[in-house]
Structure formats: structure tokens, C-alpha cells
Design brief:
By secondary structure, the protein is of the alpha+beta class. It contains 4 helices and 7 strands, in the order E-H-H-E-E-E-H-E-H-E-E.
Length: 148
């Protein structure tokens, strides 16, 4: 899959909210989205048309954290998540970011395999971090060193 990946703005907010509802059990209010989209520390990229996915990052100094990545369920398994993350890692490196961090549900095997393929390594575990249907679930903390 080869989509045109671009910075996303408030103009695509309805598409971002739609994808978030499709991909996550907990969603953000419009106010939280607008705050994220207007922050100088936030980077959000994806294919704008059609809105098939996005990756949202927070940056501080020379580090970034992947806050969310969402791919439309109808487009999953076609390589868009990997393409989007690879593109974002290059863009972040060009801004001087040297380390990218994330957390992922311990049960999200598909995402964990993707992150490992892209060079992410396990840094630690946050016990009982996420709400789950049968109680709580651990978050795996992962990171990768990136360079331009």
C-alpha cells in the first residue's frame, strides 16, 4: 500500500473522531482533540483522503511518544500501519528526534509484532494499566532509537 501521508489538521477532525471510535474503546472529546491538534508539541500524520488512518505523536526535546495509531478496520492488514510509522519515524528524525517511545496492550499481538519489525524493543511493563473486559491489562513499554 502506498498512500500519500501528510500532516493532518483540524479540517479532518470528523474523520479522526470516526477512526478513533472504530479502533478504541475509550475516545476523546472534541475539546481534547482540538487541544492536541493545536499543540506545538503534537505531530499527527496520515493519508488525508480517504481518511484510512492516523498516527499521533507528542514531542519533547529529542524524544517523541506515539500516543495513538489508528487504521480503519477495513484497511487493516494491508501495510498502512507500517508505512505510516516508517514515514513518521523519518519525519521525526528529520526534526531531531532520536528516540520514539510507545505503550501497547500486552494482548495486542499484531501491533507488538509490527513494532518489533520496526526495531522497537521492550523497555518495561506497566502492570494493570489498561481497563479490560475481565479486569485490568498490562501495558508494554517499547522504544526505538531513530536517526535521519
Amino acid at each position: 500500500m502506498s498512500e500519500i501521508i501528510e500532516p493532518l489538521s483540524q479540517a479532518v477532525l470528523p474523520g479522526l473522531q470516526r477512526l478513533q471510535k472504530l479502533c478504541f474503546t475509550e475516545t476523546w472529546s472534541e475539546k481534547v482533540w482540538l487541544s492536541q491538534l493545536s499543540s506545538s508539541r503534537t505531530r499527527i500524520w496520515g493519508p488525508g483522503d480517504p481518511m484510512l488512518g492516523y498516527a499521533l505523536f507528542s514531542t519533547v526535546l529529542d524524544e517523541a511518544e506515539l500516543l495513538q495509531i489508528a487504521i480503519d478496520p477495513a484497511a487493516q492488514g494491508q501495510g498502512l500501519g507500517a508505512e505510516l510509522l516508517c514515514w513518521a519515524m523519518q519525519a521525526l528524525a528529520a526534526e531531531g528526534i532520536v528516540r520514539l517511545m510507545l505503550e501497547v496492550r500486552a494482548s495486542n499481538d499484531t501491533a507488538i509484532r509490527l513494532y518489533q519489525r520496526l526495531g522497537f524493543e521492550l523497555d518495561g511493563v506497566r502492570k494493570n494499566y489498561y481497563a479490560a473486559g475481565d479486569g485490568r491489562e498490562d501495558a508494554l513499554l517499547m522504544s526505538v532509537v531513530i536517526s535521519p
